[in-house]
Amino acid sequence: MKITVIAATGGIGRLLLDQALAAGHEITAVVRNPARLTADGRPLDGVRVVTTDLADADPARLEAAVDGADAVLSGLGARTAADHGVARRGTDAVIRAMQATGARRLVVVSAAPIGTVPTPDRPAPPRHDPGDGFVMRHVLNPLVKAALRAHYADLALMEEEVLGSALDWTVVRPPRLTDRPLTGRYRTAEGRNIRGGRTVPRADVAHLMLHLPEQPRSIRKIVSIAT
Ligand SMILES: NC(=O)c1ccc[n+]([C@@H]2O[C@H](COP(=O)([O-])OP(=O)(O)OC[C@H]3O[C@@H](n4cnc5c(N)ncnc54)[C@H](OP(=O)(O)O)[C@@H]3O)[C@@H](O)[C@H]2O)c1
User: Fold this and answer.
1) How many domains does the chain contain in total?
2) Which residues, 6+ apart, have CB-to-CB distance to 56 below 8 Å?
3) Which of 10, 19, 30, 214 gives 20 to 30 Å between its CA and that of 143?
4) Residues 121, 160: contact at Cβ < 8 Å?
5) What CATH number does the domain containing 79 carry?
6) Which residue segment(s) compose the domain that 27 sits in?
């Protein structure tokens, strides 16, 4: 497959890149800083790299990056507070580039609590995700949502852009990410979080994202993942 990886220097993004390369796919990597792709800053063999800052993306570069892609897989998210807003803005730019070029399949990564985060279009979301148990509902989620308010607001707006896009999208919602190795053994659920699923390795999220384009039933679905 021809795959475009958005934010290929991130935790999930880099694992997407490595797993897609290992599977023999043809890869285009979209990054803001290509020097982060290798330890010595040299070009990465076998990967076409497109450089653009997704807070203010160059449309022509993004269109070149997604043109002809069988799937566009995005690990984009704010790395620091200075990046807040980039998930919505950057994903909106990716969607426009896909619409301009006719690329259709988009997979993005969001976060498990986002179904309960209000947005201007959905000011009164459900108070609890139906998959969350007592501890998640009443202890962990309130704490993490207070700590990551701006970050989650950005991801909630990103989800709105994706859901409203008319592309063949899938939103992936993981709980807390770890840097543990790939297991390939994880639980998924559609439209609800996973009971007792508190963590998942980034490598497993990348594994799911890479395989979702082979699963047409995941189109226009929100898929939760957890160990
Ligand atoms: N941490 C958790 O436990 C957790 C849990 C659930 C969901 N999530 C969400 O999952 C997503 C992926 O997580 P992660 O840990 O893989 O993220 P990460 O390592 O922080 O990577 C974020 C990626 O976005 C890129 N990026 C940020 N601003 C950009 C800009 N202006 N232009 C271009 N690229 C930009 C970064 O580029 P650089 O490499 O150049 O900085 C990096 O490649 C994030 O949205 C995160 O919030 C995280």
Assistant:
1) 1
2) 89
3) 10
4) yes
5) 3.40.50.720
6) 2-112+154-226
| Beta carbon of 10 within 6 Å of any ligand 1 atom | yes
**What residue ranges of the chain have pLDDT lower than 70?**
none
The answer to whether the CB of 110 falls within 8 A of the CB of 101 is no
pLDDT tens per residue, range 44-102: 888 999 999 999 999 999 999 999 999 999 999 999 989 999 999 999 999 999 999 99
Count of alpha carbons within 13 angstroms of residue 54, beta-carbon side: 36
Q: 78 C-alpha vs ligand 1 centroid, how far in Å?
A: 5
Best of 6, 12, 108 for a ligand 1 pocket test (most atoms within 8 Å of beta carbon): 12
Q: Are 84 and 154 in contact (CB under 8 A)?
A: yes
Which pLDDT value is given to residue 39? Answer: 78
Question: What's the chain's Rg over C-alpha atoms?
Answer: 17
